[in-house]
Amino acid sequence: MKKFLSFILLSYILSSCVGPPDPDHGLVENLPVVINTPSAFSFSVRGDNYTLDETIDLSFNLQEGKSVASTLIVTDFKSSDTTIVHLEDANGGTIYQYTVTGNSTRVDGSSTTKPKKAVIQGTKFNGILEWTLTAN
Among 38, 41, 73, 79, which one is most buried in terms of CB atoms within 10 A? Predict the structure, then answer.
């Protein structure tokens, strides 16, 4: 009977434990979220001393007569290092390049060059970085 009561007590204690709360912003620290489809690309990360060295081959398919819109939003920035974000064409040429040194919003939408690679590089990034590409 004593073992049974101990088992019940232990089961109650273990079932009462809770894990950490889900993040209210939808991003888990230092775990990038990438969406890479023929019509859109998105890279989002909530960094906490996070080192970024990402080169992503894009599935992006820019149709003739369309242009690439790029939006970069950086919030909660607390880094002392610089983060570089750039978009390359098939020949390695730069279509868009952003230097992240603080909170900012950048929007560009005039390039008709077909993008091939997204490159994000930085050391000890602290903040939220969201980069989106779409055809318009």
Answer: 41
